[in-house]
């Protein structure tokens, strides 16, 4: 089902994140420092140095690993553990236009979750629920996910929850479907850094949750390589800081 309207809540989150997260997080101090360098050289120099330092730190593996270590609190599970639950819930993590297919396809984060959810479902025999709406309009993420599961893994999810636009709504609307089916024990699939926020939301809905993390942030090698900037680390630092910001938002939000 196509949706033409974006979610105002998600738009607000995007605008707030663009100000508080990279690249503006370090570009703004650099720009402001450059403007102040002649009139207030000491302050301008401090801002320039801080901006450059932030830009460097937020683009190296060491920082990504450190930030992830504070969020990836749940260990990996195996199929034997998944057999103890009644259903497997896979959370959407975005979609993207795919001209080669002529339609939307799951994002990289969503694909990682789908692959692990399919693995657990095939090895445990438990039914799948996919959850994700259309916060930016168009086709719901859950429908994109269901199609990918069918075409790529030969699996059909039993439930397709397509109303949610946030992680909090993922939990609320998924729980409604699961309660109707008499299900109270689930395995919850998402990136390890996302589950730190997602698991409590589902538990507040009265569900017993087995965290099933995937997409752990790990790097080969070590030593000097962890201090060399690269695009992957920059992207992962952005995702991790956004998760910290999201956790803070819901902690301060009444009723969350």
From TrEMBL:
Transmembrane region(s): 12-37, 44-68
Gene Ontology cellular component annotations, sorted alphabetically: plasma membrane
Alphabetical UniProt keywords: Membrane, Transmembrane, Transmembrane helix
Pfam families membership: DUF218
Domain of life, per lineage: Bacteria
InterPro entries the record matches: Cell_Envelope_Assoc, DUF218, Rossmann-like_a/b/a_fold
CDD domains the record matches: YdcF-like
Residue span(s) of domain DUF218: 86-246
Any one of the GO BP annotations: Gram-negative-bacterium-type cell wall biogenesis
Protein name (record): DUF218 domain-containing protein
């Amino acid at each position: 089902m196509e949706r033409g309207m974006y979610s105002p809540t998600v738009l607000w989150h995007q605008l707030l994140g663009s100000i508080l997260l990279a690249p503006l997080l370090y570009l703004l101090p650099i720009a402001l420092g450059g403007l102040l360098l002649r009139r207030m050289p000491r302050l301008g120099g401090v801002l320039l140095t801080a901006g450059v330092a932030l830009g460097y730190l937020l683009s190296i593996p060491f920082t990504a690993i450190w930030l992830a270590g504070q969020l990836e609190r749940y260990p990996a599970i195996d199929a034997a553990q998944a057999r103890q639950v009644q259903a497997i819930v896979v959370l959407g993590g975005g979609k993207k236009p795919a001209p080669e297919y002529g339609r939307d396809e799951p994002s990289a984060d969503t694909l990682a979750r789908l692959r692990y959810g399919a693995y657990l479902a095939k090895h445990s025999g438990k039914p799948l629920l996919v959850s994700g709406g259309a916060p930016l309009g168009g086709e719901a993420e859950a429908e994109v996910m269901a199609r990918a599961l069918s075409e790529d893994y030969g699996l059909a999810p039993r439930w397709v929850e397509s109303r949610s636009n946030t992680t909090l709504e993922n939990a609320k609307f998924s729980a409604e479907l699961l309660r109707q089916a008499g299900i109270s024990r689930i395995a919850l699939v998402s990136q390890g850094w996302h589950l730190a926020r997602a698991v409590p939301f589902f538990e507040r809905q009265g569900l017993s949750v087995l965290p099933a993390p995937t997409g752990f942030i790990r790097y080969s090698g070590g030593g000097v390589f962890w201090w060399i900037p690269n695009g992957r680390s920059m992207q992962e630092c952005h995702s991790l800081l956004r998760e910290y910001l999201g956790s803070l938002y819901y902690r301060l939000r009444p009723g969350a």
